[in-house]
């Protein structure tokens, strides 16, 4: 059997008489595939547009893979992953590997090609795409497998072995990575028609034979290792699921013989029961744990780690952009080695580096000091290797010294710590839980006196279409090619257009359209201190789509008002109420790279206090309706149930901090872009907003219980009456029917009528017709009340 062999500290004399120890092993869970300058994105989009052919796409992909493997090999990484590249998504790759293509895509047999693959990912002229959802608590989205009793599995994509061979041809021996069978099945959904009656795990016996074929294929290609990613183990699995887990791996035992097997877990610690199940597996050579998010893992390992097995210690954070504190990691590794034995620890990343930015080298705008505190994927590979090397006594002293200097500079920098902000937060939190003093029903009455809105008031969520013109104007202003006066004038004209349109349509509570904003988080981050922005810090969100999260590096303050100028200008254009439009603290936090030197909630409270100042300034300026978007509150929910309450408590508290001090007559709206919050409804009510608008159009029934709670609570509720994600224009009748359905559950006096999210991705032609039908529907039903 191949050598597992990491660190035999064999001291060989060198020519100059020095001795060198062999390094402890190093491993990378996975690597970003989008490319340092989003090369894959552009290649994909050009291919999809028919501008370039398959060859060009494949060449770009092969070049990316090659440079990634070479980078890891040159850095000295021992266990280099392959098959972590993907043209769209690794779950979809697994669906292809298993031949689990839903029948509507018309595939029957043979190797799955780009046509079928991209149809599943993006839909085609006649069939819509498969559903996409968030990968655990990251901002990465995967294509959800649809499985039912009729799926005929077959080995239909040889990508894993092809990538292994490709690397081998380059002289690089890799560890092929597969999504493990349990994670694959438990992240699937039952196909249409069997939604409520099908047990996904019942398919395990059908997919394992395919996994075995893949393993055989890999072995004959010369693979010596296999990595199964089983992050599902960090979730709350029940006993029968855990049993199925051990059965699955026991079942594969004969196929795994002759291979070294790594089971990688990540994103949290593995619960005690699951840890026992996992570490009892016989056929496994090594276990991977996230030691950045997994706070209990160390304790579990202390209690028991199987003798002779390898521990892949994920000490380098795959989800953030901070340079590793190398000496702290070294201590952790040392402690682990003392427990599990010499040569049994492999230095690794906490999870795939997919969730961090690609390469710091391309950041030319960040200042030197800030840059010295950061490490993107390419730099993290070097960190992993440096840790591994130093572990065996070959410490790169210069690198360690510079690392500790950089850590110290970050710790003591006045840009990071602002004592008065910290004092403000501490003082603010001592006081109360920040609740408005009047209950919502009374507040709504006071507001209604002032606003005098009709029943079923109509509104929109904030943004209007972001035309090419608007983008150009913002770009030119930013590049200083346009004067401030011209910029303000151009924006004013845009606002006027949006206001006029809404008045003509007969909308009751207006918005200014957000033309001045590029992005709902970046816009605020750019005006707050403590935030930095990268030029190329892209992270894949789904397919070719990437996001560039701001970096929160220091205590947050609001040097001056951020939206008051624009909101007042817009309010002056109309007699109707104009909503002030803000992004809430939890969303700003969840969509940024967050500091790791203080708890998330502390950073969140700082942002909340900054937004509170903005709310007060808006109120002072005569804005009577203020919307504070918390689009991302739900997605920050921790993976494990035991941690939900703590998170929801502080997240909701942070929201209340932003607006607890407004007058009864000021109406606070919030908007959330998701609908599956049955489990967090009490927290949403606890936000104590006056009006809640939510996405709804894709999941009617699920919301019913939310509505019912809403009735009891008494706040206004605006479940989206049509889907803005689609260019389709709903008729007035269709919208009226939706409103009627809602009225079957909700009192008319609490119901608002609005689309289910902002309109920025739509065309004006679509928006005009859809909103006109929406207002017509509201009027129709009003007349019947
Ligand atoms: N106010 C924002 C907009 O309309 C809200 C966007 C969101 O919820 N994602 O664009
Ligand atoms: Zn939304």
Feature tags:
single chain; binds glutamine; 7-stranded parallel beta sheet; 785 residues; 28 helices; binds zinc ion; 12% strand; globular; alpha/beta
How do you describe this structure in short?
This protein is α/β, with parallel strands linked by helices and 785 residues long. It contains 28 helices and 22 strands. Glutamine binds at residues 461-463, 514, 520, 581, 629, 631, 671, 673, 757-758, 760.
Q: Kindly state the percentage of residues in helix.
A: 40-55%
State the low-pLDDT regions, or none: 1-21
Shape: globular
Rg from alpha-carbon coordinates: 28 Å
Multimerization status: single chain
Beta strand %: 5-15%
- Cα(first) to Cα(last) distance is 78 Å
Q: Quick check: average pLDDT?
A: 93
Number of helices in the DSSP assignment: 28
Which small-molecule ligands are present, each listed once?
Answer: glutamine, zinc ion
User: Can you list the strand order of the major beta sheet?
Assistant: 3-7-9-10-11-12-13
- What about the largest sheet? 7 strands, parallel
**SS class:** alpha/beta
Q: Give the number of DSSP strands.
A: 22
Describe the protein's architecture and organization.
By secondary structure, the protein is α/β, with parallel strands linked by helices. Helices cover 42% and strands 12% of the residues. It contains 28 helices and 22 strands. The protein has a seven-stranded parallel beta sheet with strand order 3-7-9-10-11-12-13. A five-stranded parallel beta sheet has the order 18-19-20-21-22. Strand 1 (12-13) and strand 2 (19-20) form a beta hairpin. The protein is globular. Residues 1-21 have low confidence and may be disordered. The chain binds glutamine and zinc ion. Residues 461-463, 514, 520, 581, 629, 631, 671, 673, 757-758, 760 line the site of glutamine (GLN).
